[in-house]
Design a protein that fits this description.
alpha+beta
Length: 520
Amino acid sequence: MSQQGDRPATTDDWWGRLYDESARDTGPAGTPDDTIDDRFDSAADTLDGGDDVPSTRTYGHAVDAIAVDDDEDDAGDDEDEDEGVGPASRPPAWRESPGGRPVTRTPAPAPAAEPAPAPEPSVPTPAPVAPAPLTPRPRAPWEPPPAAFDPTDPAADPTPPPPPAPPPAAPRDPRATDPRPPAPPPPPPTPAPAARISHVGDSPPTYEAEPTALPAADAEELDQLVADTVLDGARYGTYTLRAASLRGDSARYRGEPRRDALLTARFGAGPGALVLVAVATGARATEGAHLSAADACRWIGGAVGRSHSRLAEDIRAGRRGDLKSGLHRLTDRTYGKLRARAAELGRDPEEYTAGLRCLLLSADPDCRTRVFFGVGGGGLFRLRDGAWQDLEPLVPEPSEMRGAPVVGYGSVPTEQTPKGDRLTMDLEITKAPGPLVEEPVPPPPEPFRFRASVARPGDTLLLTSVGLAEPLRGVPALGDELAARWADGEPPGLATYLADVALRAKGYADDRTAVGVWEA
């Protein structure tokens, strides 16, 4: 209620009276010099310590932009974008708060009766100068404290303080015992592996090391072809087996088939199993030499396979005599079949024959007996303690090869017993003399070879054909190189073993077959 007794003013009347353009300002009368620009200059002097500030005309747009009750807010923002006046060029007093809303400051209202000042001419923008060193500035009361480093704040220092230096270490008493174990010494440098040579001797062999020509083939007899190289291996009990057979350099150059044949077979299972390795070499310079060698391996394999149980038992029991006589009979049967095959082909027995050498190995881990037998040339070697030993059984001279008398050649006459008794009547009939035989007596057959030995851990047994036995005996450098390669006692892989067997020597170009047995 009005104190003068008038009726109370309604909300609409109060709003109209407050914003009536004809009403006189009820605030204190301002002096002619008290304007908005003067108040802005006074506030800037207070905050900046009295330094020179830009002209009030330069920041007139910013003042209009932050007046929340002014109708020209949008126009002021557009002018900021056009003239390049952004937050970075505003005075520090109008810094934006962390919340994103501008801090508003409404200036005091100007007297209504005072006319607006005339527009001043535009002031040209001064040329850019080097910035002066920044000095710390006190924060205004209405500004919130900075939550993090602000690159626009000249008082902020982005460089972190250096870490404190560690305290100096106390001198160590040489008499004190260090509880930590001493550091192990660095391992010695591993020497680079030596390059593997492909031949021994002063000069390389005449022929190339790789195959050149294939043997001729018959469309109706393709089963008679043999491969250039055969490679096999196994491991039983305490030994590791490696076997390889390859054509010689001369046969590879001329396109001749490999005359060496190789057979590896296991008969039985478990500890009673028996492993047979047979190596055969056909007669040199004869037709079908590779076929006779294959027949010899196949027929001795069949004979051993049919008697493998008895042979395995004799080997484990160490019956040397029984083994020698039994294997001798099996070998004779094999050569009997070769002679029969030669008769079928209409050829002489000497042309269709082969040298045969075999190894019998038991699969029982407790049995280390190794049995060798055969007929013909070749080699049997053992590498023990880094040195080679030649185990080839000695062949007796022909004059020493004497057996029981043969009927008609030095035997006792059938008509007289050792006690002098005559079994038949002597009718005193004179017999005509027989024809004179001038042909030379055929040489005695190849003697049967047999050897049974007990292997030691670390031994390497090597059974070879003639093509490798001859260079091993004639070129000491070949044996030295193989001994160096197999010195560690570990069996090589199949590929490595093949490369070792193929190590060449000048003057030796025959087929090579080698069977190696490494004892664990």
